[in-house]
Design a protein that fits this description.
The chain is of the alpha/beta class. The chain has a 6-stranded mixed beta sheet, with helices on both faces.
Length: 249
């Protein structure tokens, strides 16, 4: 979308954003544990850190077992034949920068791999895509240098242009911004061997979404957990295993 069109629509977009925020039901973060261990006791250990916004936290479902983190850990235990030690650090409404600050406050344990789910609040808050990428780079470097993380997987932004909870033209504009953020994320991820972005095309309709038309429902979380697990199993886990063999005494 051209900047001229966006400026012309800005009064309407601001009004729609404020009205949507006031009318949208505030769904709670799901109950349940935010850390655990899954997989056979004799399997190769995998320390997994998950961080991000409301989608990482699981808003839209009632229990963590229906959300993203716990199902992802279980999928990884199966697809990678690993014993997954996982922990979740997430909160509704966080931008990528606020996610970084949350991690810095919480001081997570060392991990082998991290999965970061952010971006939608960058779009809604009009954070430039270049700035969001710079923060993702800072998160990656901080996790590598201070927490032994060998690889950071970033989830792409969802298809905001298909969110039933957003009115037009706000949905159209936010969707275009989300696509621009995804393009910037994928371009940057391609420059680093220790970073990757999951390639997934989340199909969205009202049956997959939560009641607010904005957050994922249980079927959408299940799809995302499967897609991320397959990405890790095929692209990340084999390299981590190889690195372990090369560094073993």
């Amino acid at each position: 979308m051209s900047l001229t069109a966006k400026i012309a629509l800005s009064p309407l977009l601001v009004a729609q954003a404020l009205l949507t925020r006031s009318r949208m039901p505030r769904l709670p973060e799901p109950a349940g544990q935010r850390l655990g261990v899954v997989g056979a006791a004799q399997a190769t250990p995998l320390r997994l850190l998950l961080a991000g916004d409301s989608s990482a936290a699981g808003v839209g479902v009632r229990k963590q077992s229906q959300a993203l983190a716990e199902p992802l850990a279980r999928q990884l235990a199966q697809t990678c034949s690993a014993r997954v030690h996982w922990q979740l650090f997430a909160q509704s409404g966080l931008t990528t920068l606020q996610t970084f600050r949350l991690l810095q406050r919480e001081a997570p344990p060392q991990a082998d791999m991290a999965v970061v789910v952010t971006g939608i609040n960058d779009v809604m808050g009009q954070v430039p895509s270049r700035r969001a990428v710079l923060v993702r780079e800072a998160i990656t470097n901080w996790l590598r240098n201070g927490h032994a993380v060998q690889h950071v997987v970033f989830a792409p932004l969802p298809p905001v242009h298909a969110f039933p909870g957003l009115p037009q033209p706000l949905r159209w504009v936010a969707g275009a911004d989300a696509q621009r953020h995804n393009a910037a994320l994928q371009e940057w991820a391609g420059t680093r061997a220790d970073v990757s972005c999951v390639d997934m095309q989340l199909p969205l309709d009202t049956t997959l979404m939560a009641s607010d038309g904005f957050h994922p429902g249980a079927p959408a979380y299940r799809y995302c957990a499967d897609a991320i697990a397959q990405h890790i199993a095929t692209r990340v886990w084999p390299q981590l295993q190889l690195d372990r063999l090369e560094t073993a005494p």
